[in-house]
Design brief:
The protein is an alpha/beta fold and 258 residues long. The chain has one domain: Metallo-beta-lactamase, Chain A. It is 26% helix and 28% strand. The protein contains 10 helices and 11 strands. The strands form 2 sheets. It has a 6-stranded mixed β-sheet with strand order 1-2-3-4-5-6. Strands 7-8-9-10-11 form a 5-stranded mixed β-sheet, with helices on one face. The two termini are 14 Å apart. 43% of the residues are buried. The structure holds zinc ion. Zinc ion binds next to loops.
């Protein structure tokens, strides 16, 4: 029994990373373009957006660009017109106002970039992630400018929880304090796990390699193993958020997985 009708993968841009940013201790000298994914789920009850991409307004404003990227010696992400979230939603026939719920895997800047478009929606996040993100002195990959908006309506969760039949949230802490993933049951494709940033590449899951960045290494490794176990148990597919090989061979919006 599932309430999910179909799912679209939204390619929201690219980050230029060292490979070791994805695979701890592997490939410090290798640089690659890491895709940034978000997902739209069409349910019998409406639309659920999973993550929101990166804030391209920062990239177009020289002062903000310096404050958030170049001044920190960070390479700015690449967001072309085809990567912008709202036009992709429009191509799918969906207005931002149609989206009643947003699920955040976590609150790193490549997942919160378009939250300001969804101030009418419920924003589902783990309580401990929200707590960390709103505490002074958090790490720089959390961009307050994206989520420090008084009108945002937060729905805070603790541990595993169910959004609707066929949409199961999994607490997968470790990459960040309150990371969560989503097990989605599609009517034809069957079960898929939206892994978020539990780890970036297929290599991480195949060889149990830590992500480059983790708030807790032990939890991060346990979460990789948990995803692997769920994939085995359910015969599920892994939808990798940042793996170029996966994303470049996937069906992207405006196509759907049903
Ligand atoms: Zn992340």
């Amino acid at each position: 029994m599932t309430t999910v009708r179909r799912l679209a993968i939204l390619l929201c841009g690219y980050e230029i990373l060292r490979k070791s940013d994805s695979t701890r201790g592997r490939g410090e000298r290798f640089v690659f373009a890491s895709p940034i994914s978000a997902y739209l789920l069409e349910l019998t009850s409406g639309y659920l957006l999973v993550d929101t991409g990166v804030n391209s307004a920062i990239l177009r404003d020289p002062a903000l660009l310096a404050a958030y990227y170049t001044g920190r010696n960070w390479t700015p992400p690449i967001v072309q017109l085809a990567h912008e979230l709202l036009p992709q939603l429009a191509q799918l026939g969906v207005n931002p106002q149609d989206i009643t719920d947003v699920f955040l895997t976590h609150m790193h800047m490549d997942h919160t970039g378009n939250l300001r478009q969804f101030q009418h929606a419920s924003i589902h996040v783990q309580r401990r992630e929200h707590e960390y993100a709103t505490t002074a002195g958090h790490a720089p990959a959390w961009f307050d400018i994206d989520y420090d908006l008084p009108a945002l309506r937060w729905a805070l969760h603790d541990g595993d929880w169910t959004f609707a039949p066929g949409v199961q949230a999994l607490a997968t802490y470790g990459h960040t304090p309150g990371h969560q993933s989503l097990l989605v049951t599609l009517p034809e494709t069957g079960p898929v796990v939206l892994v978020g940033d539990v780890a970036d590449l297929a290599e991480n899951f195949a060889e149990q390699v830590l992500p480059g960045d983790a708030s807790d290494d032990q939890q991060a490794l346990a979460s990789i193993r948990r995803i692997n176990q769920i994939v085995d148990e359910h015969g599920a597919a892994r939808f990798l958020c940042h793996d170029p090989a996966f994303v470049h061979s996937a069906r992207l919006a405006p196509e759907w997985y049903s």
